Amino acid sequence: MTQPPETGPAPAGAEESSPVTPPAAASDAGAPEAAAPEAPVAAPDAAPQAAPDAAPQVAPEVAAATVAAPPATAAPTPAVFGNASGRSRRGEARTYDFRRPTKLSREHVRVLQIAQEAFARQATTILTTFLRAGARLELVGIEQFSYDDYLATLPNPVFITTFTLEPLAGKGLLAYPLDMAMAIVDHMLGGSGRAEQPNRPMTAMESAITNHLLSRLLDEFAASFATITEIQPALNGFEYNPQLAQAASGSDTVMVATFGMSVGSREGEATLVLPFSSFATALNNAASPQLSETALAKRKRAAEALTARLNLVPVDVSVRFAPLTVSSADLLSLAVGDVLLLRHPPDSPLEVTTNDVTFAYAIASNHRRRLAAAIVPTPYAAAKDSA
């Protein structure tokens, strides 16, 4: 039988007692507390007699140890509940809003990832060239947010620049830490960028220097997205408070590309935001499987045949005076011999229409003994020429 864990300090004489000492002798020696721990290691035939005497004496010590143990181990460990254990956040639960279902499919993410990685490589080259220092921009991931939810993730202050996406609707947004934006200006002015940077909006000179760099980055951004759609981004302005950056409505779905960014010894996170609604059609077309040359030729022949057939479709064309408005009573009282006074000026051409749409003007004429209409310039063009 094994010896139980030590439950309290034992008398000095307990270790010197013989393991074969009978329980009765131990009781006569005046050491009742030592007999309890030694009872389990006595002879097998003595164990039943030692158990009744040991139980009342050991129980208080065990109870004291049980009560006293929690304060020594009850201190909370933050690493168990936080991210300090080094685990990835990929496995954490995320909020899903059923009012705004996911619109960014896996195929969309794949197409965007190719374009954003190409932009990151070119941006790294431009940053290194302009700053003459080690710089890096590396894609971390692409996610879908509502615009309000994205703004809630940004610190205040932060460097934000918005830009247009002509010919697409909406605006894009590029954000990165303000101290890194100031360090970039420091590098471009010949500094080391290691000094503590001011936490304030940029001056006019600092903004002009940053504009030059951002314009080059937007040119590379347009080149990287040429495989998806043709865009001509142009800088729109700077902002330092996320709540004042009006790039989209609060409920609009945006695509957020997160980049790891480093300039010299500084490291941070940059985000590039694009409106999903503006790129939805282009992403669907880019994500569709590529057609073979045979399929492309077949589609081209079908488009040509459709165009040729549309040119042969008959269309009803009318040549009419200007419309006349009459009352219901006059219309119901019309009889043979009545005269309707037209409000068409005598010197104005007639309207050539189809499906109530006027597309040309004409004057009455004849051709081979048949009434005809000769097309003339529009009244507006004639009046402009005469002026």
Write down the overall mean pLDDT: 77
Largest sheet: 6 strands, antiparallel
Number of helices: 12
| SSE order | HHHHHEHEEHHEEEHHEHEEEH
SSE-based structural type? alpha+beta
In oligomeric terms, what are we looking at?
A: single chain
Folded structure, characterized:
About 21% of the residues have low confidence. 39% of the residues lie in helices and 21% in strands. It is elongated. It has twelve helices and ten strands. The protein has a six-stranded antiparallel sheet with strand order 1-5-6-3-2-4. The chain is of the alpha+beta class and 387 residues long. It has three domains: 58 residues, no CATH class; 182 residues, CheC-like (Chemotaxis protein chec); 59 residues, Roll (Surface presentation of antigens (SPOA)), CATH 2.30.330.
